[in-house]
Amino acid sequence: MVAAADRCGGDLVAACAARDVPGLPSGAAAEAEALASALAQARGALDREGVGAACVEAAVRCGVADRLVCDRSDRAADQLDRLRRLCRAARRYERHAQHPALADFLAGAVVTLSTLHGAKGAEWDHVLITGMCEGLLPHRRAIDRGEVDEERRLAYVGITRARVELSLSWPARREGRFTSASRFLAEAGVAEQGARLAA
Question: What is the count of structural domains for the chain?
Fold first, then answer.
């Protein structure tokens, strides 16, 4: 998708909306198109109603809120609570900011995205690692090649970046198939229901 975004002038949303991304499976292309549509709806809400409405619109249109409501697990309840707090924070910011802007609100959240490779040497109070399932971490290719030790080292790098709180998550399904939690979680003594650990 990054290469496709380069062809769209660096616009990742436009790349998601494109129907002819080379090498992207049809299912993934449909999901990317749905994401682009949801983001366009959120952009419309931002223009019409402001920052708070845009955050709510994004959560609803992307289907995140509905999935969390339908999921009865403690992890889903916690994530839904965080999503609600984010939307309330956006509305609060909008009430008090002189010139509210989505970019300024998000900048105030101070969220840093990093790959595991890029996280080495850095530390944050709160760290969320997604995709902690077999096939992603360790990656399927690494398993096939017998290179799981390097993947374990990368997982350790990510886990040890947290100063206060570490959250680990993984999808219930990936590419239409059920997933299993990463073997690294069992090795670390973490229960498979999801994990949120104090450092």
Answer: 1
